[in-house]
Amino acid sequence: MNLMVVMQVLGGLAIFIFGMKLMSDGLHRVAGEKMRSILRMFSANRFVAVTTGAVVTGVIQSSSASTVMVVGFVNAGLLSLVQAVGLMLGAHIGTTITAQLVAFDISWIIMPSIILGLLLGFVNKSRISNWSETVLGLGFLFLGMEIMSNELNALKTCEPFLNTLRMFKCTPVDGAIPFLSMLGALAIGTMATCIMQSSSACTGVLVALGAAGLLDIYTALALVLGANIGTTITAQLAAMTTNRIAKQAALANTLSNTIGALITMATFWITVNGEPVFLKVVEWVSFGAGIPRQIANAHTVFNVFTTIMWLPFIGLLAKICERLIPVKETRVVYERLEPHLLNTPSIALTQTASALRQMLRKSWKMIDCALNVYNRNDEKNQTVERQLGQREADIDARQKAITEYLSKLMLRPLTAKESEQIPMLLHCTNDVERIGDHAEIIHGTVRRLLEGELRFSADAEAEYDQLHDTLAELTAATIQMLENPCPANRDKAVRLQGRIETMLDSSETEHFTRISNGDCKPQVGMLYLELVEEMRKISRHLENIHERAAMFYGKFPNVRDRAAAQLNRSMA
Questions:
Q1: In this model, does residue 468 exceed pLDDT 50?
Q2: Which long-range contacts (CB under 8 A, 24 or more apart) does 48-52 make?
Q3: Mutual orientation of helices 388-410 and 345-375 as an angle, nearest 10°?
Q4: pTM (predicted TM-score)
């Protein structure tokens, strides 16, 4: 009988955690498109960072998800350590909403939420259907809570279970809380939350235990403190493969909650009218409510207190973490294609565009070097020339990394707009990789010229330099277009595209004239035309990229049809 009750309790816990995850994922999806604009607020100051962290976590209902996202931001170079600390402190406040919800006795909401959530899933409009998981998750959350609460009442007669609870019972003895029992409860709360990786889930279980009369408020307070230490394990796990600054952010998260818990625990021996001062505060904000509400309020009071305590010392906490985990490298390597950002598709797409810009800069560096070999091959250019093979391998590796990153992103829940952007980025990545391939062809052609001691005519050399410089301008404009597709950047890219095409056509015509007039040897002339053709191919790849950039960002409806037509041509 007792075994069946335990299974029922664990089943209720499973439904509770599933509902919480479903609700969190649904809210995350609804808010996902706004994450990029919210991110811009992070850099203002520590107060804005804390507020933003609380709001974002309050929306997505998961401090673990928020802190992992912050670790990803730091690893990608989007946030500084100080900004990250502020966000994490705020995240711990935002996550307390779940505990506050489950402390309400509103079991009547269970079935309506499950029915409504299911019905919303059949709606074709994504703005409505995205709420399906949120509403459905809310129903499962309270269903799991009700199952746990009902079944835990049956454990009041289970002596083995009661004996286990007595082992870390923190009820005052002779007016003093047992220190060892307090440490034991703290450790159990920490371990339980490390396993569940959610302080909200752990607090929900405590609320259920309190509602069943199996947990006194003293023991619950110690378990709540442990839960808030244990919830930091998620950020630590996420930071294992990141750079050292992201590791510092995860450490700051752990230190802030651990030190806050120890300080709060010390107040248990500071009494007012025979009761710990922390308990007095909890009772005061609970307005005489029962233990379930007091447990939820203790969770909130602790996180608010800890945040206020650290707010003036965020810079100091950051310096402590920098001292404990020093950056050994002379240059910190930031990961643009940060895997933890895949859970925030809008930001993952922005990071992919950033990686694409960097890839294009490196591809152009190869083209620029290959063209310079003819008449601008100084010592610096010769150094790059010796690295062309290595740089080509690097471009191929970057293409593979972006493709794999976008492939993983495709497996995430995406909006229609986000789904449309992935093929655009994949095609742009292929164009950039092909630009790098043309560097090898250009380099081989130029080397044939130099090894054969062949030179262009003076007019051809002047045209060659002009084409080279204009192509450089077009590349810079394309990079700007990927970064900020404003009308001015778009017009500049289109204008330069038209200019390079006109120059290429004119150069071919002029060169045929020079060959027929005998001003240029046929052998040299053919090599010159090969180089002009390579530059034409590069310009077309750049055109593909800057036209798709407008389609990717979706800000220029008047060019969408042109971009789509260009895409169809390239796929044909």
A1: yes
A2: 48/86, 49/83, 49/85, 49/86, 49/87, 49/90, 50/86, 50/87, 50/89, 50/90, 50/93, 50/307, 50/311, 51/90, 52/87, 52/90
A3: 160
A4: 0.78
